[in-house]
Amino acid sequence: MTRTNTRSPDEPTPAPSHQDGTEPEPRPDADAETMAHGSSVARRFRPRVFADGLRVSAAWTGRSIIVLAGLFILWYLTKALWSIVLPTLFALLLASVLWPVNRFLRRALPKVLAALVTLLAFIGTVVGIGALTVPTIASGVTKLTFLARANLADLADFVAGPPLNLNVPNLDQVVDTALTQLQANAGNIVNGITTGLSELTSGTVVVLLALVFTFFCLKDGDRFLPWAAGWTNSAAFAHAANIADGAWKALSSYIVAQATVALVDAVFIGLGLVLLDIPLAIPLAVLVFFAAFIPVVGAIVSGLLATLVAFLAYGWVTALIVLGIVILVQQLESNFIQPLLVGRTLEIHPAVVLASVTAGGTLFGIVGAFLAVPTTAVAIVVLRYLRDQSIENRPETGVASRGPGPGPGPGPGAGLGPGSGPGAVPAGRRAKQQRG
């Protein structure tokens, strides 16, 4: 009868022995290896792995240097052609906002008339806002000057009296000193006005070019991608169409969402200024609206300016009330409205927004700060598309790369897929080209 050797799972495994039944002698260096490496397994230095890592690092460093050189060349060309680049960027922003209206008017009007009516309606809206704002500026400045003189005199008496007892110069002396300095620097002021007029002329040219470019974007925007299809192969056109679609949607969504946020700020802050009878309430509300398109910085500057006007007009109590209204409205906007609209649209971290605004303002001034966030949004769309294309199709992980699919949706170039438009390549031939 054969005896089966059974062993409990909890029983330790017997140590291996030599054929003669004796126990194997431990290696003298086993304890040393265990203490040095935490394991009795010997470790070897593999110089090839280090060389491979160094080679990969050098390759990526070289590529990074090439990319930085390309960005520097792009920045240099942008600065050199700024008079053309700036109107083009403004035209794209305006066209992204006006395109839904233009698309609706195309149902009843030809493309040319629809674009013209849309652009004229926009110009009429801007002119109407200016017509309502400019007359209030003159009367508001006069009222603010009168109130500021009386308020500053009361403030000087308060500072000179107990308990402060500070020596404050007479207000009339301050005014006389200011007039003297104004007369002494009349030449510099004239030069500054001349420079301002030249910049105003340049700005007028930029505005006119932007309006003309906007008209052509509204009229022929849906023909740009088919025209580009004739200059590229099918694969490149498919990628370009997808990137253009994502960039256009991000751009238009950002402008609409930011305009909604700016309108909420302007309405509620302006309403508070009107109820407190602050001079220049309507112009300040308009300034709050336009300043809101510069994230973070614009809201702070416009809020401080409204607080300063309230302080000059009625003193520090009213100024604190205005400051409280500004902070309350901006907190409600930043915690509820902006995350709901802008946050879901772009998903950009506030630190990235602040860094982009700072960089844009440093390189291109106030215009750069205004265009910083839309440019960052488009750059993020491109980077996300490149990331999606670089992910391999792995069914076991559920991660799939998003290949070039259909062309853009609504917007200029809607309905343009990689297999449509002039110069498009048939599907079978396109597959052969991609395999080749």
Write up this protein:
The chain starts with 29 loop residues before the first helix and ends with a helix. The chain contains 13 helices and no strands. The chain has two domains: 79-221, no CATH class; 234-409. The chain has helices spanning 30-37, 47-80, 82-105, 111-160, 171-184, 186-220, 224-229, 234-275, 281-291, 297-314, 316-346, 350-390, 427-435. By secondary structure, the protein is mainly alpha-helical. The chain is 74% helix and 0% strand.
Task: Note the main attributes of this structure.
single chain, 2 domains, mainly alpha, 436 residues, 74% helix
Oligomer: single chain
- CA distance, first residue to last residue: 71 Å
Shape designation: globular
> How does the major sheet shape up?
none
Strand content bin: under 5%
Helix/strand-derived category reads mainly alpha
Strand and helix order? HHHHHHHHHHHHH
Number of helices: 13
Q: How many separate domains? A: 2
Q: How many strands?
A: 0
Mean pLDDT: 74
The Rg value, from CA coordinates, equals 34 Å
Q: What's the quick description here?
A:
The protein is mostly helical and 436 residues long.
Give the topology.
Blueprint: H1 30-37, H2 47-80, H3 82-105, H4 111-160, H5 171-184, H6 186-220, H7 224-229, H8 234-275, H9 281-291, H10 297-314, H11 316-346, H12 350-390, H13 427-435
Helix pairs in contact: 3-4, 3-6, 3-8, 4-6, 4-9, 4-10, 8-9, 8-11, 8-12, 9-10, 10-11
